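Hey,

Quick one before I head out. I ran the complex with iron/sulfur cluster overnight. Inputs first:
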Amino acid sequence: MDPKLPEPSCREGSQNTNPCMSCGACCTVFRASFYWAEADDATPGGVPLALTRQITPHRLAMRRTEGPLPRCVALLGTPGQTVRCAIYDRRPSVCRHFDPAWAAGRDNPRCNSARAALGLSPHEPNLPNLPKAA
Ligand code: SF4
Ligand code: SF4
């Protein structure tokens, strides 16, 4: 683990129990957009508004999750090696609801497609139950 990174505040579990902590692909592939009222100017303790950008009258997106080379402004570390979300406890609902493929026995093809974009192997159906991590 990179000693320069802060103590885990993002992805639950450890490198051994949570594959998201050595991945971060979804944070570098997809636009993370959500309803404006999730931001902390409307909801105390919500997503830090300063880390977002307005994309429609009613929706925000995490900064730097758009464009040809997206990488969320809140993602720390090296994707595919060691990562964590700097705002884990305040991340938007779109991130909270994004489960690793086959976590809790459910597939998530978008997880594996993000991993493929990073050159990472897909999760298989035998992935053990994991905490929500992205
Ligand atoms: S949800 Fe999937 S793509 Fe996102 S960090 Fe976890 S394993 Fe990687
Ligand atoms: S807010 Fe956190 S979990 Fe969501 S895309 Fe950004 S780094 Fe990933």
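The beta strands are 33-35, 52-56, 59-62, 75-78, 82-85.

Talk tomorrow,
K.
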